[in-house]
Specification:
It contains four helices and three strands. It is mostly helical. Helix 1 runs antiparallel to helix 2. It is globular and about 50 Å long. The protein starts with 5 loop residues before the first helix and ends with a strand.
């Protein structure tokens, strides 16, 4: 960690969060611009998203956030487990209380995908040097499949075509 000053540490955390959110937001904006056949706007959004990633990674490194792969895998397991055991169940309860069906669906799909992510991180932690299989991600819900994309996504029901391969 670069700083021990509590205010600087909090500022680095806030900067990391803000830059991370800007990256995701700009990528969503780029997709919309592409759908609207606006290539220049899409490219500028993607470029800014990459720049925000550079900033976020810099802040995260200064926070001492990147450790050994084993430590990083354990951190990922802990984060995914928190999400499917606590965060999303509470969010689902809130959405159900007000009858927000779109939020219920989104939280449910994310919750189910996080369970699979945690298991994959556990598998990687047990044998991080194993040969990497083909890996596919569902564009609808974030389900991750190894080997080949399933005919139907077990979480959202999307057809095989909604999967893309991770390189």
């Amino acid at each position: 960690m670069s700083s021990t000053d509590p205010k600087v540490v909090e500022d680095l955390k806030a900067a990391f969060a803000g830059e991370s959110q800007a990256n995701r937001k700009y990528l969503a904006y780029a997709r919309k611009a592409e759908q609207e056949k606006l290539p220049y706007a899409a490219k500028i959004f993607r470029a800014a998203a990459e720049a925000e990633t550079i900033h976020a990674h810099s802040h995260f490194r200064l926070l001492g956030g990147v450790k050994s792969t084993a430590d990083n895998l354990q951190d990922a397991i802990n984060g995914e487990t928190y999400e499917f055991e606590k965060m999303y169940p509470e969010m689902l309860q809130d959405a159900k209380a007000v009858g927000d069906s779109a939020a219920i669906s989104g939280f449910h799909m994310a919750n189910e995908a996080e369970k699979i992510h945690a298991e994959l991180f556990k598998k990687a932690l047990a044998n991080p040097g194993q040969d990497a299989p083909k890996v596919f991600v569902c564009k609808v819900c974030g389900h991750v499949a190894e080997g080949e994309a399933p005919e139907v996504c077990p979480i959202c029901g999307g057809k095989r075509q909604v999967y893309f391969e991770i390189q």
